[in-house]
Amino acid sequence: MPTIPGYPDDIFTDEVLLDPHEHYRALRELGSLIWLEAHQIYAVPRYAEARTVLSDAKTFCSGQGVGLNEVANNFGAGLTTMMSDGEKHTYLRGIMMHGFTPRALRNMRIDVEALATNRVAELAEQGSFDAVTDLARALPLAVVPDLLGWPAGRRQQLLEWAAASFDFLGPPNDRATRAAAKTRVMIESAEKMIRFAEQAIADGEALPGSLGAAMHEADKRGQLGPQQVPLLVFDYIGPSLDTTISAIGSAVWLLGTHPDQWTALKADPSLIPNVFNEVVRLESPVRLLSRVASTATSVGGYDLDAGSRLIVLYASANRDDRHFERPEAFDIARRNAGEHVGFGYGIHACAGQGLARLLSHAVLKALITQVDTIELGGAVRGLNNLINAFESLPVTVHATRPHRPQ
C-alpha cells in the first residue's frame, strides 16, 4: 500500500481558521488520507472518502469522542448523540429528535415565518444593522430555547456556551492558550452550563412538552443516567444555535457579495431551498469532526490501523472539484448543491439541520420580499476551532416598500 502523505502546517492557527481554503486545496491535492504532522492525526480532505467514512458508522465510530483532544472526548464519550454508537446512539437520537420531526417542524413553519417577516421588516425600516447580531442570532434565540424548554430570563449565556462546546472539541492549540487559557475557560463554561441545566430541569422550570421536560421524564424513568440529562442539553444547544446562525450569516454575506445571484433569487423564490444548500456547501457551518477506526481498514487506498483517529474535513470535501464543478463559485442554481456534507452524513448527520433549514428559508423568504439591495460593510469572521461563522456583518439594505411589523 502507498505511504500516507504528510502535511506539516497547523490548520488551527488564527490565520488559517480565518481563511482555510488554500490549505484545504493543498490537502486534497496530496491525497485522500493525510497525516497532519502538527496535530498527529489523520485527515480526510476529499468528498468521496469523507462521505464513505461518514456513511460507515460501524467501522468509523463516534463512541470514543468526535473531538481532537482527550479531555473533550472523555467528557462526553458514550453519553451524547454526537459521541455514541449503535443502539445507544439510536435511543439517544430518538430523544434528541423531540421537536425536530418533520411534522413538528411543519407545525412551526407559520410562526417561524411570521417571526422572520417581522424581524426583517423592523431591520429594513431601520436601514443599517448587523446581520449577525440583529438577524442571524436573533431568530434562533427566539425559537431554540423554547424548544429546549430553557427557562425564560436565563438565556443570555446560551450563545457563549454553544460556541464553547465546539471550541472545546478542537485541539489544545496555541490559539486557545494565547486567548487567556481558552481551553480552561471552555471547560469551566461547559461545567457551568451542565450544572445550570441540571438544576433548571430538576426544578421543573423546563416548559411542558419541551425536549428538556422529555429528558427529565426519561431520567425519572431510569432510561437515562443522571449525568446524561445535562450532557444532552449541552449536545442540543450547540448544533441547534451555531449551525443556524452560521447559515443565515453566510447567506446574507454571499448574496451581498454576489448581486447577480441576489437578483436571480428575487426573480425565482423557488430557489430558496437550493440557495440554502449552496450556502452550506460553500461556507460549511462545521469545519470538521473526528472518528475512530474500530478495526483495521483502508481509506482511499491507504491502510489505517484499528484505533486510529481521523478527522473528516467537511469544509474541504464540500469544495472538492472531483465532485463539484467550479467548487469555489457561489451558484444558487447548482444542480448538486444538496449533496454537500456540511451537516455531516449518515446516522450522525446534524440532528438540528431541519430547524436550520426552516429558520434560514424563512429569513431568505422575508429578505427577498422586503429588500431590494444589500450593501455590505466590513465583515468580521469569528474564530472557533470547529465552527465557521461571522462574528459581525454590518449591512445596509434598501427596502422594497415601507413595511411595519404587525
Helix content: 40-55%
* Radius of gyration (Å): 21 Å
Query: Major β-sheet, in short?
Result: 6 strands, mixed
Helical region count?
A: 17
β-sheet strand percentage: 5-15%
Q: For the record, what is the CATH homologous superfamily label?
A: Cytochrome P450
Task: Return the string of H and E elements.
Answer: EHHEEHEHHHEHHHHHHHHHEEEEHHEEEE
Average of pLDDT: 87
End-to-end separation in angstroms reads: 66 Å
CATH class: Mainly Alpha
Flag low-confidence runs.
Answer: 176-183
Number of domains: 1
DSSP strand tally: 13
Overall description:
Helix 12 (211-220) packs antiparallel against helix 13 (228-257) and helix 13 (228-257) crosses helix 15 (272-282). The model is unreliable at 176-183 (pLDDT under 50). The strands form four sheets. The protein has a six-stranded mixed beta sheet, with helices on both faces. A three-stranded antiparallel beta sheet has the order 5-13-10. The chain has a two-stranded antiparallel ribbon with strand order 7-8. 50% of the residues lie in helices and 12% in strands. The longest helix has 30 residues, at 228-257. It contains 17 helices and 13 strands.
